[in-house]
Amino acid sequence: METWSHHLCLGLLLLLLLSAECLGAEGRLAHKLFRDLFANYTSALRPVADTDQTLNVTLEVTLSQIIDMDERNQVLTLYLWIRQEWTDAYLQWDPNTYGGLDSIRIPSILVWRPDIVLYNKADAQPSASASTNVVVRHDGAVRWDAPAITRSSCRVDVSAFPFDAQRCGLTFGSWTHGGHQLDVRPRGAAASLADFVENVEWRVLGMPARRRVLTYGCCSEPYPDVTFTLLLRRRAAAYVCNLLLPCVLISLLAPLAFHLPADSGEKVSLGVTVLLALTVFQLLLAESMPPAESVPLIGKYYMATMTMVTFSTALTILIMNLHYCGPSARPVPAWARVLLLGHLARGLCVRERGEPCGQPRPPEPVPSPQLPAGPPAGPCHEPHCLCRQEALLHHVSTIASTFRSHRAAQRRREDWKRLARVMDRFFLGIFFSMALVMSLLVLVQAL
Questions:
Q1: What is the pLDDT of residues 367-419, one digit of tens each?
Q2: d(CA 338, CA 358)
Q3: Which of 15, 139, 23 is nearest to 31 (CA)?
């Protein structure tokens, strides 16, 4: 048993020595390969055997995170992983010569790199993707993976805010090499979203890639580029809860001013209070919304609601004037009596106390004065007679006339008050329907 354990320990020690020797040999071969490759290598020239040959560069972009979308300045900040692949004619070797060494990793500043930049860059900061290594294979294939934080210009359209969708393009291309010297092509039909970190405000719908060949006014040769279009849709839940839903509730509360009794004295106060509340929410919306020529959808909704509340308050003031018509008011016109107090009142079920809905109350008969019964006309036989016919008839006629005037003035006031109630009920239905329809049209955009 001891002999077997001794042999096992010797075998393990020999294996460790051989592994260390192999690792050391691999390191020496890598150093030798590095010295041989870069003995006469320069990173200043395009690595092609023939100067007329076009160098093909494959570009692949992986979206990792949306850092910021600045709508006010129209700048999109992204965190990307950019992979570029090309073939270097001067970085090739035979793996059998170097112990089967297939690839090496070296600093990217030592090799030639394509000058592919972001055309629509929105700042003057240099790119931070120059410190990573490149992977060089024995056949000359060079792969350069580099993370980068890009700030690109993006035209933001807020006409449908907060239910808007944005299209932001990132255009990559060579800055100095034309299409005859360097050709850039995308790998795949779209950027990769496998490692994307979800954003709390924006939902990514895709990032398709498209290659273009353009000729600019400065140069005669064409310049190819690759444009990755980031498709975004805003998450509107926070804006619906904080800005839209309170406005909907307030807009539905505003028409209820027509339902308040005129004697309460709060009809105009409710309209003014609602208008002030909408103004406060409008100021909050203006702070969170970028300035633009087109008015956003929620801004149009606020403007329409404030206009509706303003008109409802003005109509409330006019209806209050109808309600408080004095004794000297004129009678209700005949057309208004027939159309409003007749048909419209029955249709809206506006009735007096004790009056059945849909049936007008019959007019009350005006009592006619009754002359008191007395002795027949003839000469009065008493010296102080109290029943003189002419004086009694004059006084009774005066009392009856005063009573009729009072009843007519009271009837006019009641007619104007009833007309005010009919107008209140009519405008309550109109403005409540308008507020409900506008709210539904805006809220349906969130579905």
A1: 444 444 444 444 545 555 545 567 677 667 777 777 676 676 667 777 777 77
A2: 14
A3: 23
Among 177, 247, 232, smallest CA distance to 202 is for 232
Count CA atoms within 13 Å of residue 168 on its CB side: 29
Q: How far is CA 427 from CA 136, 155, 257, 381, in A?
A: 79, 44, 10, 69
DSSP bridge pairs for 137: 103
CA atoms of 253 and 329, how far apart (whole Å)? 33
Helix axes 389-443, 245-253, angle to 10 degrees: 170
Cα–Cα distance measured from residue 219 to residue 224, given in angstroms and rounded to the nearest whole number: 13
Q: Are 231 and 397 in contact, with CB atoms under 8 Å apart? A: no
Architecture of domain 55-235: Distorted Sandwich (2.70)
Report helix, strand or coil for 169: strand
Tell me the residue length of the chain.
Answer: 447
277-300 pLDDT, tens digit per residue, is: 888 888 888 877 767 667 788 888
Cα 110 off chain centre by: 48
Cα separation, 297 vs 162, in Å, equals 7
